[in-house]
Write a structure and sequence with these properties.
406 residues, mainly alpha, two-stranded antiparallel sheet, 1% strand
């Protein structure tokens, strides 16, 4: 009985310490609590609040503090005390960074050892804090213990019992991650959808939309996945700066979304799937990027004619777009890479005739201007050689004239 009361006293002190603001824990020279010195029995012991000194804290390493916590953890059997000690270890690591001075396997074992303690507290109701907090901490311990199934069980219990819990967005996201890794994509998608419902405005929202799209894609629901990827791109796109000023994590989502749209289009060939997608969503300011990525994707897959067709689809759809010359150039590059020389030559002639004069010439970027000059030279030389090799006088004159024009 005395031992149990001692453990409960330790637990009370630990729980109070955990609830202190981070700055109080990190700046006071004296402990925020001390034990009543004039108590006659253990039962009379109570934590007394004392004023926190402003002197510098003792020079104790994170490893030293963690080692002390672990030592006590191995000595006590009370579930509440053990759970609070583990939570305190987590707070130490989060507040000060670094490791706990133990191996990864020792850390996993540490968390595995307390999972039953969490179960006992959940069953008994002896935890002094909110139940949703305990379930969240249990799920975290399960994750650290690499017991994914048990961790997800706690999370699912958490959101089932506490619909309005502050932990819902992260809980649903972790549930989605679990089922996605298990290739249960429908269940993963369902969890990610709940993140959007409960976590609007949180940093989990964009991640959930992104993973929901991949979940749909891996269920072969390409149309739904395409719609969701477009929704994600819309969230990251700015009317003035495009995707230029997005964060690094957002940039990864944008690039992966465009890659996924290219993969989906590749199933049908050319740009048919992409055309249908944009028909459903009307035009997007970043549409040129989707076609450009698709053309490059096909070229990297050695599908040169599909690449050229995808680039041509953009020009057919948006003939007056500023990036039409860029896509025309991509088509030429792909035809050249595939050694479709005659078609590439025809595209170069079309490139010159379409963009080599008037307002288009002024709108070309430096790269396209250089490509225009190179195409003029290439076409002029080719027609000159053709003229020299022609036996028919009229054909020879025609080629000389074309060489002169270029």
């Amino acid at each position: 009985m005395i031992e149990r009361r001692r453990h409960r006293l330790i637990a009370a002190v630990l729980f109070s310490a955990i609830l202190l603001p981070a700055q109080a824990l990190g700046t006071g020279g004296a402990a925020p609590f001390r034990i009543q010195e004039n108590a006659k029995t253990i039962g009379d012991l109570r934590p007394l609040a004392v004023e926190i000194a402003r002197s510098s804290p003792p020079n104790v390493s994170l490893e030293g503090a963690a080692a002390k916590q672990i030592e006590v953890l191995h000595e006590v059997s009370d579930p509440l005390t053990r759970v609070l000690l583990v939570d305190r270890l987590h707070h130490l690591q989060s507040a000060f960074g670094g490791d706990l001075g133990v191996t990864d396997e020792q850390e996993r074992a540490l968390y595995r050892d307390v999972l039953d303690d969490y179960d006992q507290l959940l069953a008994s109701g002896d935890y002094p804090g909110p139940r949703d907090q305990l379930l969240y901490q249990a799920a975290r311990a399960g994750a650290y213990a690499e017991d994914s199934a048990r961790s997800v069980h706690y999370l699912e219990t958490l959101v089932a019992e506490h619909e309005d819990t502050q932990y819902a967005p992260e809980a649903y996201f972790r549930i989605g991650e679990h089922y996605f890794s298990e290739e249960a994509y429908a269940r993963a998608e369902s969890a990610y959808e709940q993140v959007v419902v409960t976590g609007a405005g949180t940093h989990f929202e964009d991640k959930a939309i992104y993973m929901s799209a991949w979940s749909q894609f891996l269920q072969d629901r390409h149309q739904d996945a395409g719609d969701t990827f477009i929704a994600l791109l819309d969230r990251h796109h700015d009317a003035e700066t495009g995707f230029d000023k997005v964060s690094m994590s957002a940039r990864e989502q944008v690039d992966d979304s465009m890659r996924a749209l290219s993969i989906m289009s590749a199933y049908e060939g050319e740009a048919r799937a992409l055309n249908e997608l944009l028909d459903r969503h009307q035009d997007r300011e970043y549409a040129f990027l989707l076609y450009e990525r698709l053309a490059v994707f096909y070229r990297n897959q050695a599908r040169f004619r599909d690449s050229a067709a995808a680039a041509d689809s953009f020009r057919d759809r948006y003939p007056d777009h500023t990036h039409a010359p860029v896509l025309a150039d991509e088509a030429i590059r792909s035809l050249e890479a595939g050694q479709y020389r005659e078609r590439a030559r025809g595209m170069k002639a079309d490139f010159v005739l379409s963009y080599g004069e008037g307002s288009w010439l002024e709108r070309l970027d430096e790269t396209r201007r250089e490509r225009l000059l190179t195409s003029l030279d290439t076409l002029g030389r080719w027609h000159y050689r053709q003229a020299q090799s022609e036996e028919d006088i009229d054909d020879r004159k025609t080629n000389y004239a074309q060489a002169a024009d270029f």
